[in-house]
Amino acid sequence: MVDRDDAGRLRKHASARPQGDAPARRDVLKRIAAVAGTAPLAPALIATATQAAAQPAAPAPAAPPLDSGYQSLGPDEAAFVEALVNVMCPADHLTPNGVDCGLAVFIDRQLAGGFGQGERLYMQGPWRKGKPQLGYQLPLTPEEFFKAGIAAANAACKAHYAKPFFALAPGDADAFLKEIATGKVSDPRVSLGLWFSELVYPLFTQACFADPIYGGNRDKIFWRMVGYPGLPATHRNDMVEFRGKPFPGAKHPKSIADFS
Question: What is the pTM of this model?
């Protein structure tokens, strides 16, 4: 369980925004509620999204070396995702940075698996324009949409900063993500606000708190941070006894791997 002090530290860790002109990098999580631009992709993207996502990056600067374990992301895509998770989860006294927490690996595995391939989505046309509140309604798999968004975000980043997203300084990268999340960065083919709110941010939060067997939440770091004991099904009984108090079992949470 989490006491009030721990809960306060968690809220500060996830979305604190200090006073002044330099918002904390994690503030991008808090501001997602204000995201704009929930219109579906422009028709031109339907036929070109995959090609746009696969376009080769500019030769300079070169992307960091590709993690050989990636199954979906190419070198430039992996560089983008690694920079993104490090901005949204910077290293501090609570956790390592997002890459070291396994967040990029989790996202890659989800894109490469059934979720990313659209196994549970209706993928046979015709596609009609739906209401924004109905969420994801695109003739693309999540993997295709994710990669199209990376290509569009990188193009916008290069237009504004003359460099790809992974090459930005942390402060500039944070500011750029906030502009995407609030709909201030646009692309004629991709609604980047929709891309961030419906795909990027959910995958990020899942990467933080999913069972470590899926690649994220490495060493159960986020479970320990919030005082979650992991898999034991009897935890609901402990919630009554330890409400408002630290739960001793949360010091050593158990994952699926611990029971296999």
Answer: 0.71
